[in-house]
Amino acid sequence: MMKTILLLFGLSISTLASAQFAKGSKLLEGGISLRTDFKIGNDAIDISSGATPNDVESNSFGLNLSFGAFSSARNEWGVKAGYSRSDFRSNTFFTDQFGSLLLFRSKTIRNNAQIGLFYRRYLPLATRLYGGFTLGMDAGNSWIKSRSAFDAFTNNPFVETSEETILNASVYSNLFLSYLFSHQFGARMSTGSMAFQILKSSRTNVTDASIDLNLNTSFSPTISFFWIINGKSDNRD
Prior knowledge:
By secondary structure, this protein is mostly beta strands.
């Protein structure tokens, strides 16, 4: 019995130690991000003194999927798609020069969809641990709706709405760490990216559109999980 347990334990350790990416393998990856922030003003603030307590709420949701194929054990090529939604609400109380209490309310909702191509280079760091970098390009569309209201409490509020569409294309790079839990499952932590981005923006009630070229950097890490569909034998090119 003890020999059987030791044999099974040895096979398990051997399987984990040999877990690696291989030529011909396919990789399906996905990640979900959720975030909620609140900031509530202090009720003890004396509004009549001209102070401006704010009630702020922001929520965001994101979903990213990718599918890649390994041309060798260190090189992955693939496609990806993503969707995100965020909304921001705020209420600001303040007083005018006559001491009247005023309220400014705003709400912005943003939806974004992206598709793209990528290349990843893997560098072995330790058993089942890989570092590397990603090069990719994205194209997508963002839809932004904003609504603001200025309310003097005694009169009908002034309401303004706007809609904006942003077409974007970018070339980006980032760094990552990947860890293989087994020969089929793993996780990846990616840094924020550095991207050259072209934006074309158009708004309702505005006749002209703007085109911008930006260099954006982000350092927010993201975590995703992947499933490996094994292919041919290992190739370390």
